[in-house]
Design goal:
InterPro entries: L-lactate/malate_DH, Lactate/malate_DH_C, Lactate/malate_DH_N, Lactate_DH/Glyco_Ohase_4_C, NAD(P)-bd_dom_sf, UBQ-conjugating_enzyme/RWD, UEV_N. This protein has 15 helices and 17 strands. The chain is an alpha/beta fold and 466 residues long. The strands form 5 sheets. A 6-stranded parallel beta sheet has the order 9-8-7-10-11-12, with helices on both faces. The protein has a 4-stranded antiparallel beta sheet with strand order 1-2-3-4. Helix 6 packs across helix 14, helix 8 runs parallel beside helix 10 and helix 11 packs across helix 13. The protein is elongated and about 80 Å long. About 6% of the residues have low confidence.
């Protein structure tokens, strides 16, 4: 069942050489949504010096998408050991490390993971010795942990007892990234009311900070915060908001840093939600949507960038409400790249009786559109405004509205573009993502601008290491 069996077998051999005490077996792992899968697991001890020398027992589960998805890691304490909950370990013994968060093949390996695990455990010992009076309580905890990792979860038990609808039947969405944009998306989606459950996947190192801590304090119904990729399982829509905050010097370095970050995220997300629609809000949106498409191996219809949806909705509002041009608003679209290179285009085809009327109508339309573009200038995209736009797109997808939005989609074949690049185009959205791309009026100037954008994006993509 392993997609990359040879690489996985090679990893087993490497671990055996350095850590001969490790044993390997195939066992059933139960995910948080109750689904089960037979997975390879490593079990053994790692040497840790914390004043004295200790052998810390660990248990690593290797996903069938390895090496593109990181292992799932647990402590495996005996009855005489208690778990020290800290920055890298939760109460159930689940291990969280920067190495897991930044997992990227071929740079990341199980050997490298274990080395970082040892280094972090030497800073903060994850286990302590229990007194005999505490050993009985510890055995109950270990029994609970065994249910999580080896066969049965609370969620699964509840679904059997209650007989209600299962997780997979919900309109569940996941927001990846707990920065300002991620939190804005959670709040906007929750306020929209389209999703039955919203999961905020916080991939930052350490305990909850800032907004995520506030979420925990002022609990919102149907909002869950997790650091565990499996919490995203069976999401109908996954919204990617993460951006690398590295010390990159050039624009290409910044993008490559984001690509490296996505290599550790998108395959794992794709593993847990194989039928999801990926909605990309990370920057630069056109390139990161392309990267998400490549890393997920999803069909092009199910990988969408937020693109020019916000600009288009603002443009429609200005035309219809400020300039009282409701008819024009229906046909006007901001397309192409986000930012200064965006282009105004039209989908309507108005019939007129003669050429003079056609020219007059065209001039009138352009004059109104230019006034609207002037009003639109200078309106920045705050996190909360992008969050509202993301909620709008999510609502159209979850409710199968068949509404047209200007979103980043694969533009190959449009306007004589022959390269695999993503640009904003008017698209009808439904539960399966992009249902169709709406035909634009033929305008040589618009086509020239789109081809120019496609060329520059393609050149940049060719320099990236995927």
């Amino acid at each position: 069942q392993y997609k990359f069996r040879d690489l996985t077998v090679e990893e087993v051999k490497n671990v055996s050489k350095i850590y001969p005490n490790f044993t390997f077996s195939m066992n059933t792992y139960t995910f948080k949504d109750g689904s089960q899968k037979d997975l390879l697991n490593f079990s053994g001890t790692v040497p840790v010096k914390y004043g004295n020398s200790y052998n810390i027992p660990i248990h690593l589960w290797i996903l069938d998408s390895y090496p593109f998805a990181p292992p799932i890691c647990f402590l495996k304490p005996t009855v005489n050991m208690g778990i020290s909950v800290g920055k890298h370990v939760d109460a159930h013994g689940r291990i969280y490390l920067p190495y897991l968060q930044n997992w990227s093949h071929p740079k990341s390996t199980v050997i490298g993971l274990i080395k970082e695990m040892i280094a972090k455990f030497e800073e903060e010992l994850p286990l302590y010795s229990l007194s005999s009076s505490d050993a009985a309580r510890q055995s109950e905890l270990l029994s609970y942990i065994a249910k999580i990792t080896e066969g049965e979860t609370d969620m699964k038990s509840k679904s059997k007892i209650g007989g209600g609808k299962t997780e997979g039947c919900f309109n569940k969405i996941t927001v990846v990234g707990a920065g300002d944009l991620g939190i804005a998306c959670v709040l906007a989606v929750a306020a929209k009311g389209a999703a039955d459950k919203v999961v905020l996947l916080d991939l930052s190192e350490g305990a909850a900070k800032g907004g995520t801590m506030d979420f925990e304090i002022f609990a919102l119904p149907n909002v869950e915060i997790s650091k565990d990729f499996s919490a995203s399982a069976d999401s109908k829509v996954v919204i990617l908001t993460v951006n690398s905050l590295g010390n990159a010097q050039t624009y290409l370095d910044v993008i490559q840093s984001n690509v490296d970050l996505f290599r550790g995220i998108v395959p794992a997300i794709s593993h847990y939600s194989q039928n999801t629609v990926l909605l990309v809000a990370s920057h630069p949106v056109e390139i990161m949507t392309y990267v998400s498409w490549k890393l997920s191996a999803f069909p092009k219809s199910r990988v969408i960038g937020v693109g020019a949806n916000l600009d288009t909705e603002r443009f429609h509002h200005i035309l219809a409400n400020l300039l009282k041009a409701q008819v024009l608003a229906k046909d006007a679209w901001i397309i192409g790249e986000q930012g200064e290179d965006k282009v105004l285009s039209w989908t309507g085809c108005h019939l007129v009786t003669n050429q003079r009327e056609a020219m007059a109508a065209c001039n009138s339309r352009e004059n109104v559109a230019n006034r609207a573009m002037e009003v639109l200038k200078g309106k920045g995209q705050r996190s909360w405004s992008v969050g509202l736009s993301v909620a709008d797109l999510t609502d159209s997808i979850l409710k199968d509205k068949r509404k047209v939005h200007s979103v980043s989609t694969l533009a190959k074949g449009c306007c004589n573009i022959n390269s695999e690049v993503f640009l904003s185009l008017p698209c009808t959205l439904g539960t399966s993502g992009v249902i169709e791309t709406v035909k634009l009026e033929e305008d040589p100037l618009v086509q020239e601008k789109l081809q120019s954008s496609a060329g520059s994006l393609h050149d940049l993509q060719q320099q990236l290491k995927l």
